[in-house]
Design a protein that fits this description.
Layout lengths: L1 E6 L3 E7 L5 E7 L5 H16 L8 E5 L2 H8 L5 E6 L5 H4 L24 E9 L2 E7 L1 H11 L3 E5 L8 H13 L4 E4 H4 L5 H32 L5 E3 L5 E3 H6 L7 H16 L5 E6 L4 E7 L2 E2 L1 E2 L2 E3 L2 E3 L3 E2 L2 E3 L5 E5 L5 E7 L18 H7 L8 E2 L3 E2 L2 H15 L3 H23 L11 E5 L7 H8 L3 E4 L6 H7 L4 E7 L5 H12 L5 E10 L6 E4 L6 H16 L8 E11 L15 E9 L2 E9 L7 E3 L2 E4 L4 E4 L3 E5 L5 E5 L1
Parallel strand pairs: 1-4, 4-10, 5-6, 5-8, 8-9, 12-24, 24-25, 31-33
Antiparallel strand pairs: 1-2, 2-3, 6-7, 10-11, 12-13, 13-14, 13-19, 15-18, 16-17, 20-21, 22-23, 25-36, 26-29, 27-28, 27-29, 30-31, 32-35, 33-34, 35-36
Helix pairs in contact: 1-7, 2-7, 4-5, 9-14, 10-11, 10-12, 11-12
């Protein structure tokens, strides 16, 4: 059996794939103080549902939010920075751009390493190699020992091309500080840009001890339960070992969302959809990505919580709009939603666990989009009166009715998600109208039709397992390793050798990606090409990409190569056919939509393949709820995915 467990801000999801077909799912509240407790609980529930034992599990893949949450909450290990003399303030100086062009009071996040823990080393490399060897290392090590740090980031000039001096610094540190985590910039990121490489290495050093602690606790609990050790999802969408993830926490900053993107790609292919806009709306946030020609878009440079991350990652936009996002009234009397969330504890007011502020979930319950006084996945029972009281209190501040306040909460949350959807499509030269919209996460299907109408999308896909799709994606993910080098395409052969050695098995798939730009540009565009591609081939591919992204090409411009990345994937598990449906019951209910009270069908269970659905309707699936608004019609595909079209 294949096991995938994804930890979200509110719920922890498990999927158990049984040989010969069939999926068993489980959802339990996340345990923020020790995420491994919630992971084991979700596994126990999934095994119990399947009538299986830990010995039946052959592979376990894990998506975690430990590094993401630590970054968002400002938690980090006590970390020191060792940099070339004169460059210790590199990360704080950054690019000297304002956080917001027109808000002078807005500030960029402070460096993870304070000034008192930045240390200089007397050394110098030039673009063509070492100039002067590191000096005074014994004194440097003594100062770091006295600083009592948990982690050290080493960022030296030109180390991406010439790593000798960073290796020498690590060797000196290891002799006196064998237990301290050390991140070397050339091992973390291959970018030649010192600031981005430095910020990424600082992040890697500050987060790795936290992730390693979580993975060690999880490893102990897995061993005690008789489960295999976990592989960990990377931000790039491929799995890596727990040991490697713990050594480089920066690889997992988008671990959870990456699992969802892989699950979406899997089920989009089954539905025959190659261009898909995906959104995963959970309890705390919404993650948005796009699939182009069957592949999830990737990025080699992105920003997380205002900090640059110069690593391969799936191109995912995240906004603070989830089922637990809190609606509030700002000082100007305007309704706002998020980014603050009720989380797992206390959760939305309707959970009856002490929450009193109105959330998106409470708003849907007031509007009838969720079954009143119903039981959600994870054993959470909704109480409509509590939701109505919370939304009513906000309505009083706004001077509107409770129903109008609830509609407003949903509309504002939709606006936040639309901003992210346009960022991954229109802002990148992609017209979303030709895409299908895939909605997943526990709350996503409630918003699908409204978002599709705003974007001009005519087809929606709602997987039967939409509430646990990230965990499902983990079960079918493949191991992945990347090797990057700067400037010279002649390094492709050695990069391939490095990537294959790191994978440890014969790759099933390989990709060579070239980052190119016109000379004088600040940022690159990446194109895929064969290892033997010549300059003319690369130029043609780059100019096509430039035309799509920016609307023009420069035939007279000089094209320069910045980095080359070779990626290799191992074999991915194959999931058998899933159980197509479960018995359904149909009742009548009342919902509020577009300012009107409507009679709607309430369908509980998973409709069978071939069934047709007509809006307005509420479909209460096992792990999520789908809202079908008027003028939308549904058809259930062979794997249980509900396809909606506007008619």
């Amino acid at each position: 059996m294949l096991l995938g467990v994804d930890v979200g801000g509110t719920f922890t999801d498990a999927v158990l794939a049984v040989p010969g077909g069939g999926l068993h799912t489980a959802k339990t509240l996340t345990t923020p103080a020790d995420e491994s407790l919630g992971v084991i609980r979700a596994i126990e529930l999934a095994l119990g549902s399947a009538g299986a034992s830990a010995a039946d599990v052959s592979a376990f893949a894990h998506g975690t939010t430990v590094t993401t949450n630590a970054l968002l909450e400002g938690r980090a290990a006590r970390t020191a920075l060792v940099a070339t003399e004169g460059f210790t303030d590199l990360v704080e100086l950054a690019r000297q751009t304002r956080a917001d062009l027109y808000r002078l009071c807005a500030a960029n996040p402070p460096p993870l390493v304070p000034a008192a823990l930045r240390f200089a080393v007397d050394e110098r490399c030039g673009p063509h190699g070492p100039i002067s060897a590191p000096a005074g290392l014994d004194l440097l090590v003594a100062e770091l020992v006295a600083a009592e740090v948990d982690a050290i980031a080493v960022v030296l000039l030109h180390a991406a091309a010439h790593p000798q001096h960073e290796l020498a610094v690590r060797a000196a540190l290891r002799r006196r500080m064998p237990e301290v985590h050390i991140s070397l910039s050339h091992e973390v990121s291959a970018t030649p840009r010192e600031y981005e490489r430095g910020a990424t290495t600082e992040l890697d050093a500050a987060l790795s001890p936290l992730l390693r602690g979580h993975l060690l606790r999880l490893s102990d609990r897995c061993a005690a339960a008789g489960l295999p050790q976990a592989s960990v999802m990377q931000s790039s969408g491929g799995l890596t070992s727990a040991a490697r993830a713990g050594a480089h926490g920066s690889l997992t900053v988008l671990s959870g969302p990456a699992g969802g993107a892989q699950g979406a790609r899997l089920l989009a292919a089954a539905a025959g959809a190659r261009d898909v806009l995906c959104f995963d709306m959970g309890g705390t946030s919404t993650d948005v990505c796009s699939i182009e020609q069957g592949e999830v878009r990737e990025s080699g440079q992105r920003s997380i919580a205002g900090r640059p991350l110069a690593l391969a990652s799936l191109d995912i936009e995240t906004v603070g709009a989830g089922g637990g996002s809190i609606g509030w009234c700002d000082s100007g009397g305007v309704l706002r939603v998020g980014p603050r969330s009720a989380g797992a504890l206390p959760g939305p007011a309707a959970y009856g666990r002490g929450g009193s502020e109105p959330t998106v979930t409470d708003a849907h319950l007031v509007l009838g989009h969720l079954p009143g006084d119903g039981l959600l996945a994870g054993g959470v029972r909704l109480e409509r009166e509590l939701a109505l009281a919370a939304v009513g209190a906000l309505a009083g501040q706004l001077g509107v009715t409770a129903l109008r306040a609830a509609e407003g909460i949903v509309e504002v949350a939709n606006a936040e998600m639309l901003r992210a959807m346009r960022a991954v499509t229109v802002a990148r030269g992609i017209d979303p109208r030709g895409h299908a919209l895939m909605a997943f996460g526990g709350a996503g299907p409630l918003h699908a039709t409204a978002l599709a109408e705003e974007l001009g999308i005519a087809r929606i896909l709602c997987p039967r397992e939409c509430g646990v799709l990230s965990a499902l994606g983990l079960t079918a993910a493949a191991p992945r390793r990347d090797a990057s080098g700067s400037f010279e395409s002649a390094k492709v052969a050695s990069l391939r050798e490095r990537a294959r050695a790191a994978l440890g098995s014969e790759p099933r798939r390989e990709r060579v990606r070239y980052a190119l730009r016109y000379r004088g540009q600040s940022f690159e565009l990446s194109v895929d090409a064969p290892a033997a591609a010549n300059e003319a081939d690369l130029r043609a591919l780059f100019e096509d990409a430039h035309q799509q992204a920016y609307g023009f090409r420069d035939p007279a411009g000089e094209v320069e190569l910045v980095t080359v990345t070779v990626s290799v994937w191992g074999g991915a598990p194959e999931l058998g056919p899933t159980v197509p449906h479960s018995p359904t019951t149909v009742q009548r209910t009342r919902i509020r939509h577009a300012g009107q009270d409507l009679d709607a069908a309430l369908i509980t269970g998973a409709p069978a393949p071939g069934e047709r659905l007509v809006g307005p309707a509420v479909v209460a699936l096992a792990d999520a709820t789908l809202l079908i608004t008027p003028r939308w019609r549904g058809f259930v595909l062979a794997d249980g995915t509900i396809e909606l079209t506007r008619g």
